[in-house]
From TrEMBL:
InterPro entries for the chain: Arsenical_pump_ArsB, Cit_transptr-like_dom, Diverse_Ion_Transporter
UniProt lineage: Bacteria, Bacillati, Actinomycetota, Actinomycetes, Propionibacteriales
Annotated compartments: Cell membrane
Domain Citrate transporter-like as annotated: residue spans: 16-371
Primary localization class, coarse: membrane
This protein's GO CC annotations: plasma membrane
Topology versus the membrane: Multi-pass membrane protein
The protein's name in its UniProt record: Na+/H+ antiporter NhaD
Membrane spanning stretches: 6-22, 29-49, 61-86, 98-123, 176-199, 227-248, 254-271, 283-305, 317-335, 405-426
UniProt source species: Actinopolymorpha cephalotaxi
Family: Belongs to the CitM (TC 2.A.11) transporter family.
UniProt entry keywords in alphabetical sequence: Cell membrane, Membrane, Transmembrane, Transmembrane helix, Transport
Pfam families, A to Z: CitMHS (PF03600)
GO molecular function: arsenite transmembrane transporter activity
Amino acid sequence: MTLTAVLAVGIFVIAYVFIATEKVNRVTAALAGAGLMALAGIVDAHSAFFAEETGVEWNVIFLLLGMMIIVSILKQTGLFQFLAIWAAKRARGRPYRLMVMLLLITAVLSPFLDNVTTVLLIAPVTVLVCRRLGLPVAPYLIAEALVSNIAGTATLIGDPPNIIIGTRAGLSFNDFLFNLAPIVVVLVGVFLLMCRWLFRDTLRRRPQHAEDLMDLDEREAITDPKMLVRCLVVLSAVVVAFALHSVFHLEPSIVALLGAGVMVVVSGTSSQQFLEEVEWSTLVFFMGLFVLVGGLVRTGVIEWLGEAAISAVGGEYLLAATALLFGSAVLGAFVDNIPYVATMVPIVQGVVDAAPDPEQGTALWWAFALGADLGGNATAVAASANVVVLGIAARNGERISFWEFTKYGAIVTVVTVSLAWPYVWLRYFAFG
């Protein structure tokens, strides 16, 4: 490892320690780390802002921006208050039943929207309903981020890393659905059962709040029905365009920005109104984090780690799949899984191409996708949805620390990745 690579690792580790310990604001830590990468000559303007493999992932940034604007406008119609009261009344104020209901909605949406969009839509509802019932918000938001990462694994568009893998490997929406959806259904079910234990200390019913809520009429929460109808038509078109983005040859970020623009027009909302809800600190944090990881990519650190792990398995493809599954979960826990997957894809492609058995070679892609997506739950910065949820919580005065998220996410990652391994073995290797 070169001196420049060692310096890049040092800067990354220091920035990560500050982010994890929260000694300084996470945005400050990420930007300071990115600045040090530039000051040390590890990254330059081109590699930080324009290079595909080492730069800021602008598709993610503008996808987030577009969906934040859409959510901001929808919030003004009273839709989220309506959904909050409706969900709470159906759950009859019971905390665990409410959590299951919200998680099932999240799990159904995540495979067809990307998981960031899903949490952007469901988190505001969650904050409102928890406050109505006098329940702590953090457990519900954490659980929603975790289940969105699990459920999003099922399809090509459910999790951004899958889009990268599918594009490089030539895998279709149906390929992902057929190969990953069966295990994802099992993992979501296991996770719902785990939540009863993970959040047992916070799932206590407040009878008085529940009784007061049952007297509310959710229809009164809608402030502008005509505006709501127009916005829902636009949102439906955005969802369809997400699902068919490969047919239309439009990046999800373009779909989100177009949808945001159309919704601004049909709603007649002023710029001050729709921009005030945008999580600017979250977007800036992502930019800094992408530059930090880009420094590791540019100096060859991540590639070196990946090659070392894969070369150790030789021609043993079950061992290679195991290394990809568990190794991606571990490595992806410390860097956002989008740049991690973008870096590792060429390495995995080389191993797949060398496989004598095409089916077992393709199985490496599924092990890689499972490891990267499920490993996104391991820490608060391992997946985009996690970072967005922390930003929404902070904006609503509900602080979720790095370690509060990570203590739950690490347990869920260990359980889900451990359950995914027998699936990979039985489906692709046991009877080969």
